[in-house]
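Render this sequence as a predicted structure.
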Amino acid sequence: MKVLLVDDSKTMRNIEKKVLGTLNVTEFVEAGDGLEALSAIAATPGGFDLVLIDWNMPNMDGHTLVTRIREKDKTTPLIMCTTEAEKNRVIEAIKAGVNNYIIKPFTPEILLEKVQATLQKLKAAA
């Protein structure tokens, strides 16, 4: 499984890598903002199996990134991992095309649960 981690915090990306490693995910690409993420997507033949996206980042925020990804790719699972907890923000992200939403700070168990639920839901729909 190939996962793209998009967060301006290297610490957060490391936490996500460690947690996803328990699912035997070994292939990660990291991006510090939306622009880096779009470059990584363009440079990755076959795309990613999962993308975790922070909302608040420099250069291009996560909401804009989700919108840009969904213009070309309707199927890759996208999970927003953010401190934005307001209900209207969650609704905005879902309308933009995220498959799931995790509010920081989260426990490793919550991250695993959301990732597994998202992947199972998509597998069932396929």
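Summary. The CA atoms of residues 102 and 111 lie 7 Å apart. The first strand starts at residue 2 and ends at 6.
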